[in-house]
Specification:
This protein is 50% helix and 13% strand. The protein is built from eight helices and five strands, in the order E-H-E-H-H-E-H-E-H-H-H-E-H. It has a five-stranded parallel beta sheet with strand order 2-3-1-4-5, sandwiched between helices.
Amino acid sequence: MKLQRINVVGTTGAGKTAFAARLAAQLGVRHVELDALHWGPGWTPPDDDVFRDRVRGALAGDRWVACGNYRKVRDIVWERADTVVFLDYPLPLMFWRLLKRTARRVASREPLWGHSRESMRNAFFSRNSLFVWQWNTFRRRRTEYQEALADPRWSHVDFVRLRRPAEADRWLSIHSAP
């Protein structure tokens, strides 16, 4: 396994950002959050071309760990990636993690990527709620990544599927910098 350019993917609440940050620190490489490149003030996304350009720029180096699932830039990320790590955890675990994370962010008013904050309204009572998103994308993610494994475009990518946090911890423990 090469582990030079890694994309960490998974359903909302899986812990992509924390896992990717930990892996990047262990490998001594840059951590790229696709969410930070995507979301602007007030949760406004950029035009697709702007987002794609930001991702190209952020992933221009030889070594990085990126986290995020954006289909509109998957071709850019995976063409450069040598490894994709899919955090495929049980939905109840991810729901609990998302609930704890969201409650903490709402209570602390923690700014995300320097400009947007989660609120009770957008977190829990909106049709764009992350909980709705999590529910609606959970099965789709599994199907998408299973199909990607069979796609010859991605034959150069080592695909790692981790199904439990303990399995992820073990994987991280054996994949640290040489």
